[in-house]
Amino acid sequence: ETGVTQSPTHLIKTRGQQVTLRCSSQSGHNTVSWYQQALGQGPQFIFQYYREEENGRGNFPPRFSGLQFPNYSSELNVNALELDDSALYLCASSLRQEPNSPLHFGNGTRLTVT
Amino acid sequence: AQSVSQHNHHVILSEAASLELGCNYSYGGTVNLFWYVQYPGQHLQLLLKYFSGDPLVKGIKGFEAEFIKSKFSFNLRKPSVQWSDTAEYFCAVVTNAGKSTFGDGTTLTVKP
To answer: Choosing among B27, B47, B52, B94, which should be mutated to test the A contact, i.e. which has the most A CBs within 10 A?
Structure first.
């Protein structure tokens, strides 16, 4: 069983640029969620995708957007990067869209904005 | 807005000591509760979960947690910790609308 994989593992961008992070779900999982984890804090929910549509969103501005593809893989796009966007970005897939379905996390992408 | 509070930021124990990590949440509706663990160099993984039924749930590696609705708590326990339990532990709440909130985590260090 292949777990959740994220790419790239590390990324350095300049303020104002745009970035795309990628995630492949665990086999058989149809729901993908993205989280931002700042140093010393817990993961913060950005949004969730189910059946290729956004299915819930946390307190993040519209410059954070995403996509889910027919094979359930997903992208997180961040426009107009700010210094505070520097964080670990986690992707998590789940077997079902139900809220009691456990999350399976990837290892994350470490984004540094300078 | 819902929130999750983990009161212990860093806990240091000797092997065989008992463990209890606190987790309190604020949300008035139905919740689904989780504990996740992150071992050094690994990704976050599920330790245990509660969404209905017996409020005392058992997870992997001898961990258990008790949901006390009146106290909005979901504390994690283990009677006797091992050096291999050294990790960061996160409590999470997911509402029935699917919105998830994580605590800021508790780092557990177990001395051999």
So the answer is: B94
DSSP designation for B3: E
User: Are B71 and B25 spatial neighbours (Cβ–Cβ below 8 Å)?
Assistant: no
Tell me the one-letter amino acid at B59: G
Smallest Cβ distance to A56: which of B4, B46, B99?
A: B99
For A19-62, write each residue's pLDDT tens digit. 999 999 998 899 999 999 999 999 999 999 999 999 889 999 99
Task: List the A5-7 sheet strands across, edge first.
Answer: A5-7, A19-24, A74-78, A64-68
Residues of B in contact with A94 (CB under 8 A): none
Q: What is the sign of the dihedral through the CA atoms of B99, A106, A62 and A53? A: negative
